[in-house]
Design brief:
With about 100 residues, the chain is α+β, with helices and mostly antiparallel strands. The protein has one domain. The chain is built from 3 helices and 4 strands. A 4-stranded mixed beta sheet has the order 1-4-3-2. Strand 3 and strand 4 form a beta hairpin. Helix 1 packs across helix 2. The protein is globular.
Length: about 100
Amino acid sequence: MTAKFNPGQLVWTRGVSDLVADNAEFARFAAGSLKRHLSGDWGDVDAEDKRTNDAALNQGMRILSAYNDKRFSGHGISTIWIITEADRSATTILFPDEY
């Protein structure tokens, strides 16, 4: 995989961290989603958000991807967001309700 941008420091929220620690399948999903994000696959966002993210690569703006997996709905979640800051100093993996 070739990253299209520098993610900066990789961080995740407490909720994501807890589920990664408790569920190996979710950990693989989160890692795969991060690879997709870094390669420019923005996941489950609408066409307008995909265009915005594509432009953000060249304009140095914030990038937000969303990835859904219904396997984890039993944990009260099925979506993670991955946000890379405009200055590329950090990329955060979080649940939408942690924003």
